[in-house]
Write a structure and sequence with these properties.
CarboxyPept-like_regulatory; CarboxypepD_reg-like domain-containing protein; 7-stranded antiparallel β-sheet; mainly beta; globular; 5-stranded antiparallel β-sheet; Immunoglobulin-like; Jelly Rolls
Length: 290
């Protein structure tokens, strides 16, 4: 077997496992009862490729030409077992339907008697001077659905046992008729987000280009956090949007410099978070131990 033949064979193999151009994977995600699962996180880890499913469970995932058909796509949803499929499997007509199985709650149940707890506010309760803003828009977006699964948030210090009751955040600019976000809460280990600390999908809606302070009731989710956590990250994740105008793109939160907080962000749900020193206009109403 000569060297020319081996070289040609290698080229054929490399081409066969990649794509000559971007492809679009389409499918549906359901539970075992075939009910569509809304806003499931979907993506290829650390490749800046990701999205979330629609409210009815249908999804579209762009796969660029530099991705191999052997790369793994992960489907992740609170309360369900994670599903992993290769790009090749998802291209097969038989792989269009993803069924997810319920997973028993892996979080330890934490409940405090809060009668003697005091009201506390955690985070930043003002807009600052209005000179700095954190925008969800980036110049790399070709269409609004490229923003799906994007997260922005801030760290919070925890010095007492607390039950979270309400989440507040300010909007400085909003060009959208309708928006849906998911609240995610992670523990932080050496400044890096690790596991989710909640067992519910907390979805809230913003309508009619609203700006100013927004308030989301957390009481029904019974979120209890132990003081030994020390620090946690709360993010809001973009899961659905409808533009007010054809060229709508901006949505931002007031920000400021702060040596005591960090702003965390990632563009796709399966990527690592990045962070920078600063704070966002976000705070929590909580009942905390003395």
């Amino acid at each position: 077997m000569n060297k020319t033949y081996l070289t040609c064979l290698l080229i054929i193999i490399l081409v066969s496992t990649g794509f000559s151009q971007e492809i679009l994977l389409k499918g549906e995600i359901t539970d075992k009862g075939k009910t569509g699962l809304p806003f499931v996180n979907i993506g290829i880890p650390l490749k800046n490729i990701g999205t979330v499913s629609k409210e009815n469970g249908e999804y579209k995932l762009k796969i660029p030409s530099n991705i191999s058909e052997l790369d793994t796509v992960i489907f992740s949803y609170i309360g369900y077992k994670t599903v992993k499929k290769s790009v090749a499997e998802l291209q097969d007509p038989k792989g269009k339907l993803i069924q997810m199985e319920i997973e028993e709650n892996q979080l330890d149940e934490v409940v405090f008697e809060t009668k003697k707890f005091k009201d506390k506010k955690l985070g930043r309760t003002n807009n600052g001077l209005g000179l700095m803003h954190l925008n969800f828009y980036t110049v790399y977006e070709k269409e609004i659905d490229d923003r799906l699964s994007k997260e922005r948030g801030m760290n919070f210090k925890l010095r007492k046992n607390c039950r979270l009751e309400r989440f507040h955040f300010a909007i400085s600019q909003n060009e959208f008729k309708s928006l849906k976000f998911r609240i995610n809460i992670y523990n932080l280990v050496e400044d890096q987000p690790q596991d989710l600390l909640i067992s519910d999908n907390i979805i809230f809606k913003i309508e009619n280009e609203q700006t100013g302070w927004q308030s989301i009731d957390l009481n029904r989710y019974d979120i209890y956090l132990k003081e030994e956590i020390g620090e946690f990250l709360l993010t809001i994740q973009w899961v659905e949007s409808k533009k007010a105008e054809a060229d709508s793109k901006f949505f931002s939160i007031p920000a400021s410099k702060s040596p005591f907080h960090k702003i965390y962000f990632r563009d796709k749900a399966m990527d690592n978070f990045e962070s920078q020193t600063g704070s966002l206009s976000m705070y929590l109403d909580a009942k905390c131990s003395n």
